Amino acid sequence: MAEKVLMKGNEAIAEAAILAGCRHYFGYPITPQTEIAAYMAKRMPKIGGTFLQAESEIAAINMVYGVSATGKRVMTSSSSPGISLKGEGLSYLAGADLPALVVNVQRGGPGLGGIQPSQSDYFQATKGGAHGDFHMLVLAPASVQEMAELTVKGFALADKYRMTAMILADGTMGQMMEPVSLDFAVGEAVEKPWATNGTKLSRPHNIINSLILKPERLEELNFERYERYAKIKETEVMYEEYMMEDAEICVVAFGIAARVSKNAINEARAKGIKVGLIRPITLWPFPEKAIAAAAEKVKKFISVELSMGQMIEDVRLAVNGKAPVTLCNRTGGMIPAPEQVLAAITEAAK
Amino acid sequence: MVVFDKPHALTDAPLHYCPGCTHGIVHRLVAEVIDELGIEGRTIGIAPVGCSVMSYDYFNCDMIEAAHGRAPAVATGVKRSDPENIVFTYQGDGDLASIGMAETVHSAARNENITIIFINNAIYGMTGGQMAPTSLPGQVTQTSPYGRDTAHCGFPIKVCELLSSLDGPEYLERVAVNNVKNVKNAKKAIKKAFENQVNGKGFSLVEVLSTCPTNWGMTPKRALEWIDEKMIPYYPLGVYKDRSAEK
Fold first, then answer.
1. Distance in angstroms (rounded) separating the CA atoms of residues B203 and B168
2. Does domain A4-235 have CATH number 3.40.640.10?
3. CB contacts < 8 Å between A and B, how many?
4. Among the four residues A227, A241, B128, B179, which has the most C-beta atoms within 10 Å?
5. What value of ipTM does the predicted structure carry?
6. pTM, 2 dp
7. B45-81: per-residue pLDDT in tens?
8. What residues does each domain of chain A span?
9. Distance from chain centroid for Cα A350
């Protein structure tokens, strides 16, 4: 068993990124994720890497675009309002099929919102995040350990599928401290023959581009991209099932909401209520098959979220009318207490 | 004996530019410099959004198409990825001096070791002739149909003068390509801007006063004269910063 170190979630992301071979980080200060930038500012110069504080979120994501175009692993991180600014770059990364890791440590919105934890960027993250037909891989950690593991996984998936992987965390995950083991396999580097790192006069020039003026060709490329997405939906879905074997009520929750829900489920079980949890780890691709399978035997679903109810739409699509789906939520930076979730479970059990 | 040949750094793709547009001249100058410095194999060009958006098809080196105004940020990423690479951006006035002003100013302030070729033709060409940040007072465009009214939408931005107030940039020069003498000077400036990068000196920007006969509503010949008559008096040619020369 590898030695564990006590780390903040944000620091675990930063250190895991370095372990994954990321040597370029660009960011702009915003609460509650600034520890990532601070960590990178300290570490990168010592390992021959680059930390650069950009003039804006827009510049930061475009610096990411530049490094990614040269074929190297690169990341940026921000929080909700900053991610909106990065939207342009996220769309261009998708259009140019460039891999990148982007971290969103969510805070309450809309607008400048607040600085307390939130999950209200679910729509933005899972439905594309900016203009055009595209998706990002969206990974939702529920512990500091997962903050690290999913960062490493995110880099690998991004390279494999030439797209952005987003860590969709929240302020709690970023700020909480837990013991972490940083001893995991990083995987092999992916060949990137498309990279614009100089022709060395030994090959035709490479072009990184998202401008496709012929609609027939743009349509073709979008179809090709969605074929890749279909493959991802088949092979890369990750979720955790907890006490689902005999469950009659299924709570669906991710991140901090899933941790709160587990506590409530344990208490409900103690009272004899057959309740379990499906915790999506990938939000896109969403574990729709697991939820559809559960809908064959579960009588009621409860979506627990730190938003006005965003993931619940995907839960309902997967349940497909086979059982009622209700929302148990707090928003604006508030976190549901286990008692609130327990009350929702108790109500559903009536 | 070959007395005139196409630079190796240019592809065989036919340019899409309008008759009389000077983008073709500037493309050629950039390509000649890349050839002369022998850097094509390690050069990465960043295309903007605007008329020269498709310049990625025209330069033989590796090319990246950036979002509107973001070329200096993309160039920063490329350069920081491998400082041995030579990185240039090729941007118009809307791209560089309007939507991308923050990226321009901050890459200059950081003295990012990149080369920027800035085409100032005082208009948005690709979208059909709207007012640019560099459109002259009184200039008629699609979005200033009664002439640019400075009381309503302010004054043009003089990029070289603006950036010269910063401590960061290594080299700033404004040139024009409307006659043989000016083209020769433009070539010298572009070469210096690339040499500076090769020698690790830092941020070098060459502002090139260029024509847009189509959207200016002029013949190509008249457009060349308009640069002398209207643009150069407002945008004087010359070196605005040369830190190495100052030392």
1. 8
2. no
3. 136
4. A241
5. 0.97
6. 0.97
7. 999 999 999 999 999 999 999 999 999 999 999 999 9
8. 4-235, 239-349
9. 35
